[in-house]
Amino acid sequence: MDSLELDFSLDVRLDNDCITLGDFPLCRLLLMNDSQYPWLILVPRRAGATEIYHLSKEDQQQLMIESSEVSETLADAFGARKINMGMLGNIVSQLHVHHIVRQESDPAWPGPVWGKVPAIPYTAEQLEEVGEKVKSMLSGEVAFTTP
């Protein structure tokens, strides 16, 4: 573990809005607490990173590998019509990558999810179901935390 990982801390807004599922080799894996969309977020565990170019070349490649794995997992697990990915950072500057399952039946389709409708937090049962689905598909890739 290098000093950038040792000094890493998750932005409080991400911590408040998400449920930590575990860690890939580079990124913390978060579930956005909005049951309207299966929505995972990757946060590279590198202190001070706000842009991809702040990462080493090796970390940039690892982020792409982990992001592709998350996208494929979400598409397969939830039958996505489309996976939306975004790295806005205007409010939360810490580097993080959103991966959102989109369906024609979701409340924001076809527009962006941000600000369209208020979040509906997961129930304990829904959270367990989504968590188990993600865990079963990413087994061996992610060191999962226990809720």
TrEMBL record:
PROSITE patterns: HIT_2
Annotated HIT domain residues: 40-109
Protein name (record): HIT domain-containing protein
InterPro entries (alphabetical): HIT-like, HIT-like_sf, HIT_Hint
A Pfam match: HIT
Species for this entry: Neptunomonas phycophila
